[in-house]
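RECORD TYPE: inverse folding
INPUT: structure tokens
STRUCTURE:
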């Protein structure tokens, strides 16, 4: 698991993306059971966050260019520009559970039942990601974890993402809603539940082997999440 290679990772990616495309094509045909397919599509689609996460750490592929390219594709599908996300996520690991410096704590984790329900809908996550994309595209990013030298890069990246969304809509039309947008909305709660287990109620210390936990799960989930369940390792 700790050995980086390109071949097996590319095969896994091809299967993962292939399932997304296959389900999208089925949904477009509107078979009798198509609403159930939206849920399945949502889960498989939203967990493209897993290869994005691993590519951010340069652990999905041995080749740097593979990590960068896959991060762009997955990030585009999930409204997460990878250059920005890389700085955001690495700062999260550097200062995990530090209320002053962990960027994930700028939006509070759920502390009660109401907060949990709101968090689990994923709607606040999508809203936050949309605002980040727009701020970046207009050159108004003020995140402290983004170095000045990277501002132009994340501005161009966000602008290109938005342009690509427009092109996708021109090509696919309203079909993007059933094949992509609605499944992503439906799938986000599954990702929120998975990610919640990584740090919630762990000690607020700098040691990453203590402030993170491994999630024990089955082989199917480990495959779908690209072994992200081994978060403490």
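DESIGNED SEQUENCE:
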């Amino acid at each position: 698991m700790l050995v980086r290679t390109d071949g097996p990772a590319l095969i896994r990616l091809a299967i993962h993306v292939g399932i997304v495309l296959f389900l999208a094509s089925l949904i477009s045909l509107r078979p009798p059971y198509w609403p159930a397919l939206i849920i399945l599509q949502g889960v498989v689609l939203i967990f493209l966050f897993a290869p994005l996460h691993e590519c951010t750490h340069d652990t999905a592929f041995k080749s740097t260019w593979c990590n960068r390219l896959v991060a762009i594709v997955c990030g585009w599908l999930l409204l997460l520009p990878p250059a920005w996300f890389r700085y955001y996520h690495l700062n999260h690991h550097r200062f995990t559970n530090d209320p002053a410096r962990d960027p994930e704590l700028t939006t509070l984790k759920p502390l009660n039942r109401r907060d949990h329900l709101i968090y689990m809908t994923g709607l606040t996550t999508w809203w936050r990601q949309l605002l980040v994309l727009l701020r970046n595209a207009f050159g108004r990013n003020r995140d402290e974890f983004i170095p000045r030298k990277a501002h132009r890069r994340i501005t161009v990246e966000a602008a290109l993402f938005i342009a690509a969304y427009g092109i996708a809509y021109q090509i696919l039309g309203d079909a993007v809603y059933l094949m992509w947008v609605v499944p992503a909305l439906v799938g986000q709660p599954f990702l929120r539940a998975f990610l919640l287990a990584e740090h919630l109620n762990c000690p607020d210390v700098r040691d990453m082997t203590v402030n993170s936990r491994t999630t024990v799960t089955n082989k199917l989930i480990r495959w779908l999440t690209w072994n992200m369940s081994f978060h403490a390792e």
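NOTES: The chain has a mean pLDDT of 86.
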